[in-house]
Design a protein that fits this description.
The protein is mostly helical. Helix 1 (13-33) packs across helix 3 (48-61). The protein has one domain (13-79). The longest helix has 21 residues, at 13-33. It has helices at residues 13-33, 37-44, 48-61, 72-79. The chain is 57% helix and 0% strand.
Length: 90
């Protein structure tokens, strides 16, 4: 895994996917780090220009992500152990 650079033009699809996933992890880590881009890149031995290129690229194409949150009531309904009346009977 040597992807801090923008890479060559003969990348396979799986290499492109892996590189994209690498940068999808790096960008949020930078945002949470409190470091400047320059300092973050120096610490991780990432080319600063590559960081900016990938941040722009991923910012333009990043889809919305949602998380499924199950409530206790929804879980009871799925398991058939209650009608959501709050009485515990069912």
């Amino acid at each position: 895994m040597d992807w801090p650079h923008s890479g060559g033009m003969k990348d396979s699809t799986s290499e492109k996917t892996a590189r994209s996933e690498y940068w999808r992890e790096q960008i949020p880590q930078h945002e949470c780090s409190g470091l400047s881009v320059l300092q973050f890149c120096k610490e991780r031995r990432i080319q600063e220009q590559a960081f900016y290129v990938w941040r722009k690229r991923l910012g333009e194409q990043q889809p919305m992500r949602f998380a499924l949150v199950k409530t206790a009531a929804a879980e009871r309904e799925q398991n058939g152990s209650g009608l959501g009346s709050g009485t515990g009977q069912g």
